[in-house]
Write a structure and sequence with these properties.
Elements (H helix, E strand, L loop, with lengths): L2 H9 L2 H15 L11 H10 L2 H29 L6
Length: about 90
């Protein structure tokens, strides 16, 4: 059930997919299994299989990373358009 929410998050940007590896390793203290890094769907399934407490931390950190990436994209856009979106 959680996989439906995780998959679009991982597909948002390659940086999120790569970030998931680091976040999972930091939270679990273990390397992400090789099969989980083959695709966003495999990574989402791995996250879903985590202990509920670990999964909650991983998801919180992934959403924080997504927000950070979006803020950086917005800053780059504003810099390119000299602060005006019109």
């Amino acid at each position: 059930m959680v996989i439906a929410a995780i998959l679009p998050l991982l597909q948002f940007a390659p940086a999120l997919f790569e970030g998931a590896r680091a976040i999972i390793s930091a939270v679990t203290g273990e390397d992400v299994p090789p099969d989980a890094v083959q695709s966003e769907a495999a990574m989402a399934a791995h996250i879903e299989a985590l202990d509920p407490g670990q999964r909650a931390v991983v998801l919180r950190e992934l959403f924080a990373l997504k927000a950070q990436l979006q803020a950086q994209d917005t800053s780059r856009f504003l810099a390119l358009s000299e602060g005006s979106v019109e």
